[in-house]
Write a structure and sequence with these properties.
The complex is a heterodimer of chains A (about 350) and B (about 170). Among the domains of chain A are: about 5-50, Uridine Diphospho-n-acetylenolpyruvylglucosamine Reductase, domain 2; about 225-325, 2-Layer Sandwich (Enolase-like, domain 1). A five-stranded antiparallel beta sheet of chain A has the order 4-5-8-6-7. In chain A, strands 9-10-11-12 form a four-stranded antiparallel beta sheet, with helices on both faces. The N and C termini of chain A lie far apart (about 45 Å). With about 350 residues, chain A is an alpha+beta fold. In chain A, helix 12 crosses helix 13 (about 310-325). Chain A contains 13 helices and twelve strands. In chain B, strand 3 and strand 4 form a beta hairpin. By secondary structure, chain B is of the alpha+beta class. Helix content of chain B is about 35%, strand content about 15%. The longest helix of chain B is centred in the last third of the chain and has 14 residues, at about 120-135. In chain B, helix 3 (about 105-110) crosses helix 6 (about 155-170). Chain B has two domains: about 20-95, Beta-grasp domain (Ubiquitin-like (UB roll)); about 105-170, [2Fe-2S]-binding domain (DNA polymerase, domain 1, Orthogonal Bundle).
């Protein structure tokens, strides 16, 4: 690994002060992605500011019936937390669908939002990549793009966001709490991650001198009718080719409220309000679900190797909405898709 | 070709960072080492503390051979900086046996013939110790899912699952 300095932040204010003082410094929490990126010479910080000991480890109910999750809560602790298992099982399942238990034990809630794409070319420092070296070109568009995006792509980047947790957060309309030199602010999860456009080097709307302190979940948890279905090249411990988070509120067989978000298909968790609109007020059946899938995938574009994702995403959406409607969420350990 | 990341780094770093003293409890013993900040916990264990039972497989968190227990939880030591674990309680494969008696998982791996080349085994056993402590896996399907961070390229998986089931029954 390249040499870097190391410093521990004593509190949030100290963390912000330290990051502002060094433009090449980076925060480190779980380190599961950042240390790997440093080993590949993709991230080249001169200083790591250790925020893993900051007292941001609470999971607590809010006055409005939601839950506030400290940014340093490990992914495993969050997935198994009674409040999350009971009221937000979609979030719990999505976390457990990602990575391995060792990595989930290390990875933080805030860090999960900040992880970077696993596009092969982003990781290979010998190839052009606009995300890694702005202006150098995109190797994936005409390269091995089986894992790349089909929605919201640009001429400069077709990378996907790798998180499972963030797909559930998108469906649950989570709110990101951040602190910077100017004070605190909140960012809706839909506005947190960006599309690549012509600045794919910027993944999020978090400013370089800001720190994530917490993730807030609104009261609505959809704990009766939800499912997280993740399709990947092996049955566990692989990134999603396509994943679907579906959450429904039903009145008999009629859909009162619907949330639909996809992973593995875009530069950010892909939520389609147009698809949700055509679900609301309709009968919860395969025809309705297929209609929503048609609308969500309108404008989807493949790049050769990943053309299959369009059809796969369509079937996965219909299947996941069906699981949610039946109250039969996808099992994590039994891999059969029913 | 773009300027390499390493070259860029060299132009930005005026002085080499100093080595840092790090205190760890490893297998019940207080240990001290002095290491550069970028020393991973894996390299600290193997190269500084001479505990080579923990293996370096991929060195990128993809194979699980480097799994150790930190404060009772299984993690990938290759993606952890030693300095970040200052003061932590670490258990490696060398710390599982009690006196002359093998840990139930070590015995079960022998009984069930759960390894071939053996390179992944210390990671498999440390990971399984973490799995049993978590108490989330009961069925073979659940064991397979929660052990998926440990790759065995010899393909000894059926025997590994059998060994973990045996240790779970006896613990």
């Amino acid at each position: 690994m390249i040499p870097f300095q190391y410093a521990r932040a004593t509190d949030v204010a100290d963390a912000i002060k330290q990051i502002a003082a060094d433009p090449y410094a980076k925060f480190i929490a779980g380190g599961t992605n950042l240390i790997d990126l440093i080993k590949y010479d993709v991230a080249t910080p001169t200083r790591l500011i250790d925020i893993s000991r900051l007292p941001l480890r609470n999971v607590e109910q809010t006055a409005t019936g939601g839950v506030l999750i400290g940014a340093m809560v490990p992914n495993t602790d969050l997935a198994y937390h009674p409040l999350i298992e009971q009221h937000y099982p979609l979030l719990s399942r999505s976390i457990l669908a990602g990575a391995s238990q060792q990595l989930r034990n290390m990875a933080s809630t805030g860090g999960n939002l900040m992880q970077r794409t696993r596009c092969f070319y982003f990781y290979d420092a010998t190839t052009p990549c606009n995300k890694r070296e702005p202006g150098s070109g995109c190797s994936a568009i005409d390269g091995l793009n089986r894992i790349n995006a089909i929605l919201g792509t640009s001429e400069s980047c077709i990378a996907t966001h790798p998180s499972d947790m963030c797909v559930a957060l998108a469906a649950l309309e989570a709110i990101v709490h951040v602190t910077g030199p100017a004070g605190t602010r909140t960012i809706a999860i839909a506005d947190f991650h960006r599309l690549p456009d012509n600045t794919p080097q910027i993944d999020t709307n978090l400013e370089p001198d800001e720190i994530i302190t917490a993730i807030e979940l609104p009261a609505k948890g959809f704990s009766d009718n939800y499912s997280y279905l993740k399709i990947r090249d092996r049955l566990s411990y692989a990134f999603a080719l396509v994943s679907v988070a579906a959450a429904l509120e039903l009145d008999g067989e009629t859909i009162k409220e619907a949330r639909l978000a996809l992973g593995g298909v875009a530069h950010k968790p892909w939520r389609s309000s147009a698809a949700e609109v055509v679900l609301r007020g309709q009968r919860a059946d395969a025809k309705t679900f297929a209609n929503a899938a048609d609308i969500l995938l309108r404008g989807a574009r493949g790049f050769g190797h990943n053309d299959f994702k369009i059809g796969l995403a369509h079937r996965a959406i219909v299947r996941t909405l069906g699981q949610a409607a039946r109250g039969a969420p996808q099992s994590i350990s039994d891999k059969k898709i029913r | 070709m773009a300027q390499s990341a390493t070259a860029k780094q060299a132009t930005r770093t005026a002085t080499m960072p100093e080595k840092i003293p790090i205190r760890l409890t490893v297998n019940g013993n207080q240990m001290e080492l002095t290491a550069a900040p970028w020393t991973t916990l894996l390299d600290a264990l193997r190269d500084h503390l001479d505990l080579t039972g923990t293996k370096k497989g991929c060195d990128h968190g993809q194979c699980g051979a480097c799994t150790v227990l930190v404060d009772g939880r299984r993690i990938n030591s290759c993606l952890t900086l030693a300095v970040m674990k200052e003061g932590a309680d670490i258990t490696t494969i060398e710390g599982l046996a009690r006196g002359g008696e093998l840990h139930p998982l070590q015995q079960a791996f022998i009984d069930q013939d759960a390894f071939q080349c053996g390179y992944c085994t210390s990671g498999q056993i440390c990971s399984a110790a973490g799995l049993i402590a978590e108490g989330k896996a009961r069925t073979p399907d659940e064991i397979r899912e929660l052990m998926s961070g440990n790759i065995c390229r010899c393909g000894a998986y059926p025997n590994i699952v059998a060994a973990i089931l045996q240790a779970m029954e006896r613990s």
